């Protein structure tokens, strides 16, 4: 009797499983259009998977091909961004932070942030954590103090971590304290060799200080844009200097302090891949380095794959790119930044995508004088407690909302007219981001496990498909 019941149950389960497999799979999709008629909007009619047909271009999604695991998508939380957020009405600030950092409902699930170690050029003024009167020095970092970050950056980060305790945070310095530099000036200059060890201690103090505030720093870069001396603040650090600093000072200092924060080198444009490669060729420096950070103000994204292929055990990170839509047009030109940045760098091994920067005021401030960015539009424009969502917001949201940390990039063929990238999420969902940067609409198929659906994207449209 028990055997007959068991057999019946097994047969019933088999039939139900077969029926489920035969059921039509559907894809939902979220669309943004240049005319703003649809802004990251769920489309009402799902798309049915069926037998492939027609002569449309086909994006083949292959979950048997796997690439890098994603750490997340997000923005730079500059000091200026934090200042504007903290000046908002508390209830409206809380609502905004939930919209940004919660990963359900109408929220966009930002999972990665970059902060400046000391000030960036998108702070109201220049500061470090060990500022001294001219002529004084502090090699032991006895006067180190996070004080100025406690006003804006630390309170905002604490609110964000209460919403998403797993968010990853990358720290980047724009300059060492001025007394450590040859010129003693905020703009440009180089680090004095006699202060390499002191600067390593500065990093240790920063990471330990933020940890004491309940803020874990997942990774740091050595120097923002080490070949750029035009920002205020900024500091030049050539590849041999960075290798020396990592090998003899920062790496050993982290090891001695038991710090597990990742060390990411370079943090500058893709037109100089020789910079990180020269450091990674040095075994003494290489052992301390997790990977390389890149910007895309110069060069092409395939430089990331060149560095990956040369050092496949090291990670790639995309740490900055400014995306703006204040050129006088009402059009939201989203297809090109999604294609060139989100899709492009993800297809070239980057574990994250970070845009510059989270928020600015209507005058693109606050920023430093004589070298601060005067045209850096935020993903958000914050005017008092009024918030406007800009091009960079939707560019990142098409990924961050659907591709959580821990997702794995999977295979999809590269089609010239339809840039795309695919992921499998930790929950087992497939996510496909497609951009149409062309001047005409594109009809195409998406094929997965021998079934396919057909979709149409208008000129300049971007869609994220989920099944």
Describe the structure.
The chain has two domains: 100 residues, Golgi alpha-mannosidase II (Immunoglobulin-like, Sandwich), CATH 2.60.40.1180; 335 residues, Alpha-Beta Barrel (TIM Barrel), CATH 3.20.20. It is 28% helix and 25% strand. The chain has eleven helices and 21 strands. Strands 1, 2, 3, 4, 16, 17, 18, 19, 20 and 21 form a ten-stranded mixed β-sheet that branches. The longest helix has 21 residues. The chain is globular and about 75 Å long. The protein starts with a helix and ends with a strand.
What name does the CATH topology of the largest domain carry? TIM Barrel
Quickly count the helices.
Answer: 11
Number of domains: 2
Q: How many strands appear in the DSSP assignment?
A: 21
Shape, per Cα inertia axes: globular
Span between termini = 42 Å
Mean of pLDDT: 94
The name of the CATH architecture of the largest domain is Alpha-Beta Barrel
| Main sheet makeup | 10 strands, mixed
Task: Quote the beta fraction.
Answer: 15-25%
Helix content: 25-40%
Given as residue ranges, the uncertain stretches (5+ residues, pLDDT < 50) are: 8-23
Rg over C-alpha atoms, rounded to the nearest angstrom: 24 Å
The level-1 CATH class of the largest domain: Alpha Beta
Instruction: Tell me the CATH superfamily of the largest domain.
Output: Glycosidases
Structural class by secondary-structure content: alpha/beta
